[in-house]
Amino acid sequence: MNAYTGWALHTDKYQITMMYAHWKNGSHLERRAFDLYFRTLPFGNGYAVFAGLERAVHYLEELRFSEDDIRYLSKQPEKYEPAFLDMLRKFRFTGDVHGMLEGTFVFPNEPLLRLEGSVMELQLLETALLNFIGYQTLVATKAARIRTIAEGDALMEFGTRRAQESDAAIWGTRAAYLAGFDATSNLKAGDLFDIPTRGTHSHAWVQDFDSELESFRAFAHAFPDSCVLLVDTYDTLKSGVPHAIRVGHELRERGHDLAGIRLDSGDLAYLSKEARRMLDEAGLSRTQIVASSDLDETTIQSLKNQGARIDAWGVGTKLITAYDQPALGAVYKLVARERNGAWQPTIKISSNPEKVTTPGVKNVYRIIDRDTEKARGDLIIEEGHAIDEEQPLTLFHPIHTYRKKRVHEFHAVNLLQPIFRDGKRVYELPSLQEIRRYHAEQRELFWEEHLRLLNPEEYHVDLSDDLWKKKQELLQKIYQTIRKG
Ligand SMILES: Nc1ncnc2c1ncn2[C@@H]1O[C@H](COP(=O)(O)OP(=O)(O)OP(=O)(O)O)[C@@H](O)[C@H]1O
Ligand SMILES: O=P(O)(O)OC[C@H]1O[C@H](OP(=O)(O)OP(=O)(O)O)[C@H](O)[C@@H]1O
Ligand SMILES: O=C(O)c1cccnc1
Known about the structure:
Elements: H1 13-25, E1 31-37, E2 48-49, H2 53-62, H3 67-74, H4 82-89, E3 96-99, E4 105-106, E5 113-118, H5 119-150, E6 154-157, H6 165-178, E7 183-184, H7 187-193, H8 203-207, H9 212-222, E8 228-230, H10 236-253, E9 260-263, H11 268-281, E10 288-291, H12 297-305, E11 312-315, H13 317-320, E12 331-339, E13 342-345, E14 362-369, E15 375-382, E16 393-396, E17 404-407, E18 410-414, E19 417-421, E20 424-425, H14 432-443, H15 448-451, E21 461-463, H16 465-484
Parallel strand pairs: 6-7, 6-11, 8-9, 9-10, 10-11, 15-21
Antiparallel strand pairs: 1-5, 1-12, 2-4, 3-5, 3-19, 12-13, 14-15, 14-18, 16-17, 19-20
The chain binds adenosine-5'-triphosphate, 1-O-pyrophosphono-5-O-phosphono-alpha-D-ribofuranose and nicotinic acid (NIO).
């Protein structure tokens, strides 16, 4: 098993159970459509950053049951019939997938992935897709928040030791990088995804020597051009920084610069200002100050407000674990069934209107104002229905319908791109650098009001007139059926 193979059993048992029951029922090959989406933005943010498509693509391409998987299933107490297991042996993904591109700014209740295929195969995918996309989207969104606050400073991902196991460290690092981090300390992620790697040294290095000065000298000897010294092992201002300055001068005599110092405890605002002053007075103005220590967007913002003199930030625990909101709560819902060659929309009702699903096979268009080149809102519309860019468009809130706006000069960009057709990938995976660039460009589409971290303005995700009416009709029909008993 490598990163991409061996994941067929990475699913909830009830998916296999439903596949089996469909097979017994003779309905396993009937076509269905599912949407994957989330209902609430994480961290109180104004947008989320879509991530996880690449992993989902590899998963779908490699999806098959090995002999070991079949043997394991055959031992389950449910006693699946051998003919069913035989069918699993030949299982390949044969469906269609449309998806948002990684790095896209995404919003609640719009399909991030739309899948069409046999009910049997689509049921199997639910758990794994939610697992990959929920987590990666969460970390990418957290990283984007940190990037907003850090402005042009360097951001390093330091979280592996605190991540929820190895996969989270690796894929979380990729998500952080695509949403604006500059480097990682994780060499495996660096190797797998071609992410720049960076690092300093730990307290153990300093403790390993009879004196701090000796430890700094030895480190500088090994890395004369890239040496970042951790200065807080004993006393930052009385010992660490003065020793770093001494080593900086010794390096200078040999024609090198001390690259940086790292602060990892104490009052980072005060210490960075003092350290900057001491370094500058010693003629080491090119030496950078790196900070780490339980950082996130809130502490970085506060440190900046206090005038901290920090050039680079190492962020671990709070990024990689999405500390303040550890789950996106993404869902995967059945939206249509094929009946006599045509899609029949389905709906899931809830007493909470936010949780009522939007029926049918749909596209998501981003409506972009031609004058400002800013996004005005997203419009969900049935597949096969076009948006006429020559006519003014009325956007209205699907629940609070009195909230309307009219858009005149706009272009409409379809966000759901074809990824698989009949099980064949039709989408060329972009490089991570391309995704990162695309994400940075996307930012320009949004007003600051949606991008601010605290109480951002809600971005509109609306339904087309037709779709809204169809949803209401379907709701009425179901309520009538319930009333009739
Ligand atoms: N000036 C500051 N303003 C706001 N928050 C700060 C400031 N300086 C440091 N912090 C944050 O305060 C927290 C301090 O953490 P903690 O109490 O664990 O102490 P520490 O200084 O890191 O010491 P140690 O690592 O030895 O436990 C960290 O989250 C750090 O990022
Ligand atoms: O604080 P984070 O954002 O999670 O960043 C990673 C932390 O990992 C290292 O600490 P280490 O594990 O050596 O222990 P420490 O917290 O006691 O320094 C490093 O010095 C950071 O403090
Ligand atoms: O290189 C570092 O300074 C580093 C890496 C991981 C975690 N903490 C610090």
